[in-house]
Amino acid sequence: MVLEQGGEEPLILRTLPSQSNQASACVLLVHGMNEHIGRYGEVARYFSQRYFVAGFDHYAHGLSNPVLRRADRALAEGADRADVSDAFLAQSALYDLEPLRQTLGLALQAFMAQCDAQDHSRRPVFIVAHSLGGLVTASYLLRHQNESDLRERLRGVVFLAPAFAVSEPPGWRGWVANPLIKLSFYAETHFLHPQNEPLPLLLFNQLLSLVTVPVLDGLFEAFSWPGLRNFASPTSPVWVTDYLTDSEEEKARLRADGWIVRRSLLRYVKGIEAEVVHFRRHMADFSIPYYLIYSEMDPITPAWGDEDFARVTLQHNPANEVLKLPGLPYHQHIFMQEPARTELLQKIEKWLDRRLQMPN
After folding, report:
1. For residue range 300-312, what is the model confidence (pLDDT) as tens digits?
2. Is 276 helix (H, G, I), strand (E, B) or coil?
3. H or E segment to which residue 321 belongs
4. Do residues 321 and 291 make contact, with C-beta atoms less than 8 angstroms apart?
5. Which of 183, 159, 184, 169 is nearest to 298 (CA)?
């Protein structure tokens, strides 16, 4: 299903009808940063045993990325290869996550309409969101959670390692990068927002923020300009793949996947950091039922972000549950090797079932 976005790039909603004659609910899959929904085919097939399933590509990702869409068309028409090295330039309009939230909103409305069309009834809806997709979903729902139609239909969200914290590179890379990342995050957190500190610390934090945030914003913006961004945009570090999954087969797939965006504009990276800070200021108001799954040692979306979120929201709904995977450093749990992968999918399915048996 192709959806127009008012002159923007078209959005393709991929649907997978349930293998069951009577699907009890509908599940929307939301992927993470720089990947694409095509990676979730096996996950979609698992859930389609009982549910109507759909997914889409975020703005500037997958087939919502004009470079990747042209390459896909060229290959379909018989081209031997297609250059997608400039796919990251579609991120040039991303100062924050608003375009991704708009895409999610459009996809969610179309998804619910497709869900209803399956048997002409208003079935319950769930969202399963990974990593940056978790932050996009959480921030979108925080804005819209009191809308009656959404409140009536959405029975819950499964957060898989959501981006509620900034990354902490491991090893020697962390020795170099983490102090700068932490300084930037600290300054952004305190930028014109007192944290109930004693007056001397408050003044110090405000002064630090007033100096640090504009300087870093200016540097990241300058490095995203044409002429500079081709060499200033970092490629995806090799260590990321090792921390995504423990499956060597899946790691090989990741390395060979030509539709993953391999570079990120620094403007976009800085915008994500600001989005994390903004969400954390308001996350205590999040009231949608959720199942939160994260790894204790994940360096890509560190556990402290999930723990902070759970601490201020867990009591909001009796359906809320948290699954902490102790000792694990892996970020993409539903792509881990068996039997862990299927066991986790079964736990998610059981939580969905419990939600279906509870009043909304």
Report:
1. 999 999 999 999 9
2. helix
3. strand 321-325
4. yes
5. 169
Residue ranges in the chain assigned as alpha helix (H):
41-47, 66-76, 98-119, 132-144, 148-153, 171-190, 199-222, 229-232, 238-244, 248-256, 266-282, 303-313, 340-357
Question: What do you get for the CA distance between the two ends of the chain, in Å?
Answer: 29
Q: What is the dihedral sign for C-alpha 109, 110, 111, 116?
A: positive
Percent of the chain with pLDDT over 90: 78
Kindly report, residue by residue over 149-168, the tens digit of the pLDDT.
899 999 999 999 999 999 99
pLDDT tens string 69-83? 999 999 999 999 999
How high is the pLDDT of residue 6? 47
Query: Dihedral, CA atoms, 99, 105, 106, 110, nearest 10 degrees?
Result: 160
Query: Residue 331: which of 298, 309, 303 has the closest Cα?
Result: 298
Q: pTM here?
A: 0.95
pLDDT digits 0-9 by tens, 96-110: 999 999 999 999 999
Question: Which is nearest to 36 in space by CA: 77, 80, 71, 74?
Answer: 71
Radius of gyration of the chain (CA): 20
Assign 182 to helix, strand or coil: helix
